[in-house]
Amino acid sequence: MKIAVIGIGRWGVHLLRNFLAHPQASVVAVLDPQAERLAAIKQQFNLDENILLTTQWSALQQVPGLTAVAMATPATTHYALIKQALNLGYHVLAEKPLTLDPLECLELCQLAEKQHLILMVDHTYLFHPAVQEGQTVVKVGTLGNLRYGYATRTHLGPVRQDVDALWDLAIHDIAIFNNWLGQIPVKVQATGTVWLQGVGNGEFNHFPSGLADLVWVTLTYPHNFQAYIHLCWGNPDKQRRLAIVGSRGCLIFDEMSPSSPLTLLHGEFERQANQFLPVNQKREVLEFATAEPLQRVCDLFILSIIQNTPPDISSGWVGTTLVQILSGLTTSLNQGGQAVIL
């Protein structure tokens, strides 16, 4: 299957690496606006001379038999590039978010269906073995009655110049919460703080107050389950931690813990007279298969094309739902934290 990789920045390089190694894929072209990047990856991966390295989109149309494109470009470019690719008959794997506008997402999903093409979004965490095992734990009721969830995603950079910390970071945790709960939020709220890129430092069409560096998110799901997310790309205390608390325990996905990334803390209350005493407390490290999530993404993209079946776990429609949630959060952010009904 002939594939072109578009955009070879920090994430595009990983897409290129996976497709170069895939037994059912043949990378025939790499596109990036910076010629020096193309020269660097040619040397890094010792690319075959037959692979087209180009800075021009129009050059891809001259590649015979091109089947699909994998896209890792700035979010603001997604709509135009994906639309062109679908109209040219290419299957598309796009880096998250699908676009910055829910209506554009809907249009692209409908176009993909009309063209009988696969449109898939790289929501990598949904392919993480720990996340998939966590979904099973929640689904079978191990936690008891679900009460609330929380997540923290902080680090010092990279600072994006096309989207704020909300759009850059929150999509991962929202995708995991949605996946574990089997639901989507019905109400959202967000507040944020801008330090580095205010309105005086550039034009941000989708972000009238500038690009927020710190964001606090509240997601309300059906039955009043709430999840709280702390996001910041200006905090050296790097955290990648998400948890759901129930009446019988707490499930924690901590990506920064190499020895125990998925942990189940058992514990509940037993009422004795007028007191609530903790009982059945123990810590259980959960086992799961070892696999690179992005490799699974690439595998499913190719399999979906072969079978001509959109992937349920990370289709364009899943990406559209996440963009709708983020758009609601942005509205709340711009309104000083007012609740937005979805």
TrEMBL record:
InterPro entries for the chain: Gfo/Idh/MocA-like_OxRdtase_N, Gfo/Idh/MocA_Oxidoreductases, GFO_IDH_MocA-like_dom, NAD(P)-bd_dom_sf
SUPFAM superfamilies: Glyceraldehyde-3-phosphate dehydrogenase-like, C-terminal domain, NAD(P)-binding Rossmann-fold domains
GO MF annotations, alphabetized: nucleotide binding
Superkingdom field: Bacteria
Domain spans labelled Gfo/Idh/MocA-like oxidoreductase N-terminal: 1-123
Residue stretches making up the GFO/IDH/MocA-like oxidoreductase domain: 137-251
A UniProt-annotated Pfam family: GFO_IDH_MocA
Name used for this protein in its record: Gfo/Idh/MocA family oxidoreductase
UniProt organism field: Umezakia ovalisporum FSS-62
